[in-house]
Amino acid sequence: MEKFKITDLDLYYGTFKALIKVNLTIEANQITAFIGPSGCGKSTLLKSLNRMNDLIEGCRIDGNVLLDGEDIYGNIDVNLLRKRVGMVFQKPNPFPMSIYDNVAYGPRTHGIHSKIKLDEIVETSLRNAAIWDELKDRLKKSALGISGGQQQRLCIARALAVQPEVLLMDEPTSALDPISTSKIEDLISELKERYTIIIVTHNMQQAVRISDKTAFFLLGQVIEYDTTENIFSNPRQKETEDYITGRFG
């Protein structure tokens, strides 16, 4: 079942055309990876899926982006959209507050103030992010005092706390050590049972390990989009093959 349907999407920053006629269908409860050289449009498209690019002056979009058949650039509540489509950034960005308050921040923003309910949400979210056992005795401590890998899983828990349908991940392991990276990858693989996940990565091995489908971007265009196995074992486009074999990128 399709979650996102992107049709003829062009995106401009002023006069610069950053995305060119992007057409993609993102399936529900799958992990879709965006790969390609730096500056090719991967993160730009990712941020377009919950309208983060609205915050950039001079950004303009033509085409359609449908979430469950609804145009996200039409008459839609952007706050509700961002509740449905959560975002995890490249660098862990916990708020300068306690671990508990980090996870409870979103639910409070959406009107939940019952301590019993918040306690339940915090525990469930941390469990779903596979970090409850590590943090359950430190909930009142500052989130800035835990390791980078723990901070990133805390940020995932914070995103999960508002019960999104989609998780967007912009190179979520690029700043982490190999052990933390492995934990995040295992977590992402588990989460796809409940969420649709779209991940930007420069690490092709990571795309192979965790994604179901892969889109290869080059100069603002989607050059190839297929199952990850087909992309990496038998790329149809020469540009994709060159990237995979390291001849550019």
Automatic annotation (TrEMBL):
Q: What is its main location?
A: membrane
Q: How does it sit in the membrane?
A: Peripheral membrane protein
**Locations listed in the record:** Cell inner membrane
Q: Name one GO molecular function term.
A: ATP binding
The reply on keyword rRNA processing is no
What's this protein's function? Part of the ABC transporter complex PstSACB involved in phosphate import. Responsible for energy coupling to the transport system.
Protein name stated in the entry: Phosphate ABC transporter, ATP-binding protein
Species in which this protein is naturally found: Flexilinea flocculi
